[in-house]
Design brief:
Order of helices and strands: HHHEEHHHEHHEEHHHHH
CATH architecture of the largest domain: 2-Layer Sandwich
CATH superfamily of the largest domain: Transcription factor LuxR-like, autoinducer-binding domain
Number of strands: 5
Structural class: alpha+beta
CATH class of the largest domain: Alpha Beta
Radius of gyration: 18 Å
């Protein structure tokens, strides 16, 4: 068993033995453990994305984003909004367009040693955050808090953000801010291990959360095609293209063509960003 697999196994076994939780913490039922098992068994395969999203939704996330960090760049690996487009906002696009430089976790993740995994809750981070940043990423979208998981694995430095909605009616029966750190570490290591094993797909990674038709429409847009040309290319009506585009935007938490290009790190002329 490899190092990453051993870490995942030990963490999942520790969590699986928790048949009841201490006061204030979540208790793990069979449905959550079954979802966790599906994630672990599908690491490195296409099925992982859907299994992972099902898992984090059960844990209580209203939005999930993941980014990898380089010297002066954040690349979107995953962005899924479980709320409305209006609430989800345009977090991933804004972040990769430069807001990541205002995030103290960007510098912290870049400085981590290989093998480290850290869990950071928003409350402990607030003294380091600019008011405009807090308004942009929490106030306007309607998020009450978030938990960030920083992972340093091999050459990758990655952050996974799980956001909790302010509106309790939007929340899962499991409270995200009551999840123990061990489960957060498992979630972060699972995602990092998945991306390490995954054969790069023929499309930008953020589009993995979409259905096939939604992805085809987005790829057509990234290639510079208009709605009519996309419709003809994939064999649907122009009205269907608009519907698939709206669904894709809602899932990705974006609201414009430009933001689609941003999170996919594709320039307007169709070339990949340097």
């Amino acid at each position: 068993m490899g190092k990453a697999a051993a870490i995942l196994y030990d963490a999942s076994m520790a969590i699986a033995t928790q048949t009841s939780a201490p006061s204030g913490l979540v208790s793990f039922d069979g449905r959550l453990l079954d979802s966790l098992s599906k994630c672990v068994s599908s690491i490195g395969r296409d099925a992982f994305t859907d299994n992972f999203l099902e898992f984090v939704l059960q844990v209580g996330a209203a939005q999930v984003t993941a980014f990898s960090y380089e010297a002066d760049r954040a690349s979107c690996l995953l962005s899924r909004n479980f709320l409305s487009e209006e609430k989800g906002g345009t977090l991933a696009a804004a972040y990769v367009d430069g807001w990541f430089r205002e995030d103290p976790l960007f510098r912290r993740a870049r400085a981590m040693d290989d093998g480290e995994c850290a869990v950071v809750r928003l409350e402990s981070l607030l003294p380091e955050l600019d008011e405009n940043y807090v308004s942009m990423f929490f106030g306007a979208p309607g998020f009450r808090t978030k938990t960030a998981i920083l992972v340093a694995q091999d050459s990758r430095r990655m952050i996974l953000n799980l956001y909790l909605a302010r509106d309790p009616r939007s929340a899962s029966p499991i409270a995200l801010d009551h999840v123990p750190a061990e489960l957060y570490q498992l979630i972060g290591r699972m995602l990092a291990t998945h991306f390490a094993r995954l054969k790069p797909p023929a499309f930008p990674l953020p589009l993995a959360v979409l259905s096939e038709r939604e992805r085809q429409v987005c790829l057509g847009m990234l290639a510079g095609r208009k709605a009519e040309a996309i419709a003809e290319h994939i064999g649907v009506s122009a009205n269907s293209v608009v519907t698939y585009r709206q669904r894709a935007y809602q899932k990705l938490g974006i609201s414009s063509r430009g933001q689609l290009f941003s999170i996919c790190h594709v320039q307007e002329d169709g070339a990949s960003s340097a």
